[in-house]
Structure formats: structure tokens, C-alpha cells
Amino acid sequence: MIHRSIFWLDIFTLNVSFLLLLLGVQHLYVTYSGESLWLWCWVNVCWLFLSSIGKLYYNRNISSFELFLRRTTRIYFYWLGLIMLYLFINNLYTLSKVFITIFICAYAFMLLLNRALYLLVYSYFTKNENLIRKVV
Questions:
Q1: What is the mean pLDDT of residues 17-31?
Q2: pTM of the entire structure?
């Protein structure tokens, strides 16, 4: 259950950060062209692919915060490499480099915020004695 909620939270923050930046920084000459739509699709597909290949959201990996954070960091850097490869191969020079940089940094910050939220919720539920059912 918790792995699904973390997965959807990551996808939600990925899409929200991309769309808010796309809508919010029009002064950077970011247009709503097909290139930005393809980049948006590629960003989502890469995260879905890498997180499933890297087994990021499996119960065994989520149970340990250190392992979960380490896997998240590894998958984030692979994701970053695939994004850069996509931009290089498709010669997307019309997209603003500032927009792409802000988006990549914003998603890293959002992932870190999601993991901190996960740590707080996880530690609260494990330390709360009321949630543990005692069997007599």
C-alpha cells in the first residue's frame, strides 16, 4: 500500500513541477510546442522505466530508509543521464536551458522532500504504540 502511494506521489510531483514551470516561466521563451510535450512524455516514461527496472518501489526496498534513499539517488542520476541523452540526440535547442535546469533541480528537491515526508510518516507509525495490535 505504501509503495503505491510513494510511487504516485513521485509521479505527481514530477508532472506538477514540469507543468508549473512550463506555465510559470513564460518569460524564458518556453513555448507549448511539440518539443516540450515530447520532453514531458520522455521524462515520465524514463522515470517509470527506471523505477521499475531498479525495483525502487518494492516493499523490501521501502522498508529501509537508507536503501530507499540510495536507490532513489541512483535512479535519479540514471534518469538525468537519459534526459540529457534525449536532449542531445534530438537537438532540442529551442527549449530553454534555464527551464530544463530549473526543472531537473526542482524534481531533485521534490524527491528529497518526498523522502523526508516518507521518513517522518514511517517513523511516526513505527514508534506509535497504538497502531500495533497486540495478540494475546
A1: 71
A2: 0.80
